Amino acid sequence: MLTTTKEATAKLKTSKPRLSFWQIWNMSFGFLGIQFGFALQGGFMSRIFQTLGADKEAIPMLWIAAPLTGLLVQPIIGYLSDHTWHPRWGRRRPYFFIGAVLSSIALFFVPHSSALWMAVGFLWILDASINISMEPFRALVADKLPESQRSYGFITQTLIIGIGTWVASNLPWMVSQLGVSNETTASGGIPMSVQVAFAIGAFVFLTSVLYTIFTTTEYPPEDLEEFERQKQQKKRFVADILDNIKTIPPTMQKLGLIQFFSWFAFFTMWSMANPALTEHVFQTPMPVKSAYDMASPAAAKAFKVASTAFQKSSNQVGSYMGIYGLSSMVFALLLTFYTAHRRINRKLVHMGSLIAGGIGFISMYFVPSPQWLILSFTLVGFAWGSILSMPYAMLSSSVDPKKMGVIMGIFNMFIVIPQIVAALGGVNIAYKLLGNQTIHAMIVAGISLVIAGLCNLLITNKNAITYQPNEVVTSTK
Known about the structure:
disordered C terminus
């Protein structure tokens, strides 16, 4: 007897085939572009804000666009992608494309902002657009891979993210080495090196996402007729999201606590590393224009010299920050080879990596010269590599696969809420408890990562810790 399409689809979904490395690579390659966007945003938005006249104390608040858009966009996109199916374009890929187009446009125009309010506005658009693409990429791994390959899949994503972080973080330095000007424009605008770097990032974002769209297929819903029927009957968009929030599994709640301290730390780095390191390590803070008598040629020249020194140091800070992408790539590469054939204890890997990253942040206060930042950011990269893989692997093994998109979107609320707390004064209040120097923000980031690492001790769900293909797991803690 011939198997019906419905039965064949159900069989495929309940027993997903193992994918090759290159199939997993293709479905994750779009993350290269997404990370170009995030790395350029994370490494250089504070620099853009300072160049346009922002006070360093105001920088975290100017960053609030990023977490707020994530809070709103990711659960919505997750829900919509769960309830989308197109015979040719699938479930997640339409959102990849929409987000990639909008992100590329925003990336190109961000460094052309002529006023601070314009840069802040473009950050809102950029972060919302990146989130449209990013959330479905997380869900795609859970959609396509069997349980035994989940860790492998998320770690492969982390490998690609590491490559993107390192290259994108070095782009302004690279193009300045090719002779592109690194000085602020005559009107005080963003240096040409930054403008060119963001244009390259826009191109890479769009092309890498298109590569994934055209090289990856998606599985249809288990029961396509039932899927369409439920989609027509259930128009409870907001109510469904709220219902899922109310019924968050215990493991997800505990992972949320880990995520809170992890992302508080990284938001602190993205928003404050440039002013902290240019001041404390490079001794070249952004000059305050009002402190110079610009009518005096000598004062105007002194301001330009100080401003150029700040821009050069900012390039170097971006390059050193790229080290954490490089080390996260090596971290992910080693785990990719290991998890291809063996299981790992996700909880212990995550705990150790976060504590190492915390030590890396704290060490920035003590470095005797800029070169030592290589070691600091290498340790931070271990934490970053783990943050981008282990929590998602643990979560995907403990939730309903039919709700993977909306669950991943809700889970990302645990990413954006700590960033909102940090932006609304959490960073400034916390670091000023240690002193008025901006470098104390890096110490706060380190302490936060150590706390996040220790919170892993709360995870007890065996399936989340290490997938057990031959064991029945009943614990829900």
